From TrEMBL:
It comes from Aquibacillus rhizosphaerae. It catalyses: (R)-2-hydroxyglutarate + NAD(+) = 2-oxoglutarate + NADH + H(+); (2R)-3-phosphoglycerate + NAD(+) = 3-phosphooxypyruvate + NADH + H(+). The gene is serA. This is D-3-phosphoglycerate dehydrogenase. Its EC number is 1.1.1.95. It is an enzyme of class 1 (oxidoreductase). PROSITE patterns: ACT (PS51671), D_2_HYDROXYACID_DH_1 (PS00065), D_2_HYDROXYACID_DH_2 (PS00670). Residues 456-528 form the ACT domain. The keyword Oxidoreductase applies. Pathway: Amino-acid biosynthesis; L-serine biosynthesis; L-serine from 3-phospho-D-glycerate: step 1/3. GO terms for molecular function: phosphoglycerate dehydrogenase activity. Keywords: Amino-acid biosynthesis, NAD, Oxidoreductase, Serine biosynthesis. InterPro entries: ACT-like_dom_sf, ACT_dom, ASB_dom_sf, D-2-hydroxyacid_DH, D-isomer_2_OHA_DH_cat_dom, D-isomer_DH_CS, D-isomer_DH_CS1, D-isomer_DH_NAD-bd. Belongs to the D-isomer specific 2-hydroxyacid dehydrogenase family.
Length: 528
């Protein structure tokens, strides 16, 4: 059987040799297809290879009746509709390591150009102006670089910046103080980083959590004259807030490789002399392009020949027999993981998953992966899936223990997840009620009973007459309808909890008002 592979973005010729060399593969390179042409053509192909230009939308995937695999020659998969691919059984693979070095080097090039105003000085000189006065820079030596997102690229940037004798302060949800110490960087919260840094560089994926992470409020906390670098994804920095902060002289300069909308031509930030920019060139080196093309080509060739993909980004297939038994618990296991991400503080060190009752009799590894996916996805992004969840957790140094027990507390099946972090241990348990679906039945030591879905508010408070009434009245004032309410307490007059499911999302203001009520210790808004 011969498989047809379409390459729709420019990829390194050397890099695609693993595909060209395979006997069972025919490669078609067509890099100027319009979205309409791609939709028309895609039905003929078994595999599609892209960089970031081709938008692999739901519409394209729906037309791809033979498509088995999409290869992204790079890291970010935000140009591919992962849900649509998963829904249509198309595996998506990426090349997470091949361009790390190039992206880190580009970040350093931008940082140094920014500090010394090299692009501006060159532009003036090209326009016959020998202007030395306007182009006085600052040294990097002795300055503090704030790194937000200390993953592959962030860590490489930190290492290089230390070579420039900069001090590094970093925030990453998976960074512990101990790990920071080992890496020779200072550990801080996002707030610490933005307050203390002279230069700030972001290296996170673009997620719901990181969209506009650097916003007006963050700029206000920064030092006067701070300089900003974004070689990760447009949208991590709020472009309007950045524009305002530069015009107001809070920010002395910004170096941008990426924009909220690309291509970014006629962008208002590009009119400011303090801004230097490149057109998404972080991974544009001969070496990176060869590396990423080789990585995805090998993965695609291997997968089409019946092998396993090394860097899958979405769901793999689970054997049908196993799937039939565990499928009903999938929703519950992921929701338990997601729920815990809202309760835990500090860095996750250990995850214990307890399966009891009927659950102790089945193959539970896919459920464990699914629970871990729920725990990691909020911070690591959509590329966390059942295949890579355990691997990513291990890479972050998280210990995972699976336990099968007989103590199901009277439930026919019980799934309990306990997470140990640098700041304590939190626990949540759920069950599948025959015919009624999933329920969360325990949070820490409190017995509860609610459906794990929608808008949930978790409130810790003092067990005191009036506390519940005050919350109810304030929510009514905020025109928030309460659908269900659970209360529990450890002992009379001690700490108690309220768990409410409500009909709308609470904004920050509304949450703050709840937090300020008498006898309330903490309020968390949870979206499941
Ligand atoms: N400009 C370009 O051409 C290139 C851009 N990229 C982009 O660079 C970014 C980083 O890539 P990698 O380092 O390979 O990814 P990575 O997955 O190794 O690292 C991302 C890090 O961000 C952290 N993170 C997640 N949420 C966070 C939050 N709220 N605050 C702080 N940290 C958070 C994660 O824990 C993780 O350690 C991605 O957005 C990627 O798409 C990557 C290559 C080239
Ligand atoms: O293909 C490219 O050049 C973009 C690289 C990139 O942004 C990524 O790998 O996330």
């Amino acid at each position: 059987m011969t498989f047809k592979v379409l390459i729709s973005d420019p990829l390194s010729e050397e890099g695609i040799q693993p595909l060209e060399a395979a006997d069972n593969i025919e490669v078609v390179v067509s890099t100027d297809l319009s979205p309409e042409q791609l939709a028309e053509e895609i039905g003929k192909y078994d595999a599609l290879l892209v960089r970031s230009q081709t938008k692999v939308t739901k519409e394209i995937i729906e037309k791809a009746s033979k498509l088995k695999i999409i290869g992204r020659a790079g890291v970010g998969v935000d140009n591919i509709d992962l849900d649509a691919a998963t829904e249509h059984g198309v595996i998506v693979v990426n090349a997470p390591d091949g361009n790390t070095n190039s992206a880190a080097e580009h970040t350093m090039a931008m940082l140094m150009s920014l500090a010394r105003k090299i692009p501006q000085a060159f532009y003036a000189l090209k326009n016959q102006k020998w202007d030395r006065k306007s182009h006085v820079g600052v040294e990097l030596k002795g300055k503090t670089l704030g790194v937000i997102g200390l993953g592959r690229i962030g860590a490489e940037v930190a290492t290089r910046a230390k070579g420039q004798r900069m001090n590094i302060i970093a925030y990453d949800p998976f960074l512990t103080e101990e790990k920071a110490d080992q890496m020779g960087v200072d550990y801080g919260t996002v707030e610490d980083v933005v307050r203390k840094a002279d230069f700030i560089t972001v290296h996170t994926p673009l997620l719901k959590e990181t969209k506009h992470l650097i916003n007006k409020a963050a700029f206000e906390l920064m030092k006067d004259g701070v300089q900003i670098v974004n070689c990760a994804r447009g949208g991590i920095i709020d472009e309007d807030a950045l524009y305002e902060a530069i015009v107001n002289k809070k920010v002395a300069g910004a170096a941008l490789d990426v924009f909220e909308q690309e291509p970014a031509v006629n962008h208002k930030l590009l009119e400011l002399p303090e801004v230097i920019a490149t057109p998404h060139l972080g991974a544009s080196t001969v070496e990176a392009q060869e590396n990423v093309a080789i990585d995805v080509s090998e993965d695609v060739a291997n997968f089409l020949s019946g092998g396993l993909a090394r860097n899958p980004v979405n769901l793999p297939s689970v054997p049908k027999e196993v799937m039939r038994k565990i499928e009903p618990y999938f929703h519950l296991s992921e929701k338990l993981g997601t729920f815990l991400t809202y309760l835990t503080e500090g860095v996750i060190e250990e995850i214990n998953i307890y399966y009891s009752g009927k659950l102790a009799e089945v193959e539970v590894a896919p459920l464990t992966r699914n629970t871990i996916k729920g725990l990691l996805k909020r911070h690591l992004g959509e590329h966390v899936n059942d295949v890579n969840a355990s691997f990513l957790a291990e890479k972050k140094g998280i210990l995972i223990n699976e336990h099968k027990t007989n103590t199901s507390k009277g439930f026919t099946n019980l799934l309990k997840v306990e997470v140990k972090t640098t700041k304590g241990t939190r626990m949540v348990a759920g069950t599948l009620l025959n015919g009624l679906g999933a329920r969360i039945v325990q949070v820490d030591t409190y017995s509860v009973d609610f459906i794990p879905s929608g808008h949930i508010v978790f409130i810790r408070h003092k067990d005191q007459p009036g506390a519940i009434g005050r919350v109810g009245s304030l929510l009514a004032e905020q025109e928030t309808n309460i659908a269900t309410m659970q209360v529990g307490r450890s002992d009379v007059g001690g700490e108690a909890i309220m768990l409410l499911t409500i009909d709308k999302h609470l904004d920050l203001d509304e949450l703050n008002q709840l937090n300020q009520l008498a006898d309330i210790y903490g309020v968390t808004a949870i979206e499941l």
